[in-house]
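Table S2 (text version). Query chain:
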Amino acid sequence: MHVDIGGLSFDLTTWVLIGFFGQLLFSARFIIQWISSERRGASHMPIVFWYLSIGGGATLLAYALHREDPVFIVGQAFGVFIYLRNLQLIMRQRRSEGAGA
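Corresponding C-alpha cell output:
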C-alpha cells in the first residue's frame, strides 16, 4: 500500500509496520518511566522499562538488518546488549537480596 502524508511518501510494507511497532515499544518505555517516577515523586526506572527496551530494540534491530543499515544495526545491537546486561544485574541483585532475607 502506498501512503502520502504531508509530502512524505512511502510504501507501507510488512517491514515498515514492524519498524513502527518496534519504535512504538521503544517509545512506550519513556512514558512508563515518566509515569512511574511521577507516582513515586522521584526518578525511578521500573523493570518493565528494560523489557520494553529489549523488545523495541530487538524489533528495531530486525528492521535495521532488513534495511541493511550498518549505522542503525550497530546502534541497536549495542543498545540491546546494554538492556540485557541491566536486566541481568537487576536479577542478580534481587537474588542476593532474597538470599539475605
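Notes on Table S2: Residues 23 and 73 are 14 Å apart (CA to CA). DSSP finds three helices and two strands in the chain.
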